[in-house]
Amino acid sequence: TMMTRLMRAACVLQFLVLVLSFQSAQAEELTGIFMVEISGLKDSSGDVYIAVYDSDSTWLSDEMVLNQKVDIADALDGDLVRTELLLPLGDYALSVFYDQDGDGELKTNFIGMPKEPIALSNNAVAKFGPPKYSDAVFSLGAQPIIQSLSIKAL
């Protein structure tokens, strides 16, 4: 009958919605691991801050995906400060600064240049202005990756 067909169609539709929502939930939960290794801090104490960005429009703004504080003494392994981050698979760029004065904020001069040591993913450098997202971006896939950064005062 017509009613039976409508009931079957409704059940099939509900099943498809359920399957699709389950698949998208699974896709969102896929995470990747990346290790951040920072050189240039072996004789330092205090904290470094790692800001993670996922778009050019938010790059170097306060709109980060993750802002991770890392205690140098706890994370020091030989000459390197090491930490591991877990994020959904995708494209990211990192900005790292050594908080020399311990206030949790990057100090800048009157034109916005950092006064505390910094590092960027891919060791991107500034050329005639702030470093570009496209120079710092990397892809996080299912395989763990390492970003080896050299922190420097400008």
Q: Can you characterise this structure?
A:
The termini are far apart. The radius of gyration is 22 Å and the shape is elongated. The chain is an alpha+beta fold and 154 residues long. The strands form two sheets. Strands 2, 3, 6, 7 and 8 form a five-stranded antiparallel sheet that branches. It has a four-stranded mixed sheet with strand order 4-5-1-9. The mean pLDDT is 85. Strand 4 and strand 5 form a beta hairpin. It contains three helices and nine strands, in the order H-E-E-E-H-E-E-E-E-H-E-E.
| SSE-based structural type | alpha+beta
- How far is the first residue's CA from the last residue's CA? 78 Å
Q: How many helices in DSSP terms? A: 3
Shape field: elongated
In the predicted model, the low-confidence regions spanning at least 5 consecutive residues are: none
Structure summary, number of beta strands: 9
Work out the strand percent: 35-45%
Determine the fraction of residues in helical runs and give it as a percent range. 10-25%
Radius of gyration: 22 Å
Largest sheet: 5 strands, antiparallel
SSE series: HEEEHEEEEHEE
The residue-averaged pLDDT reads 85
Give a brief description:
The chain has 154 residues and is of the alpha+beta class.
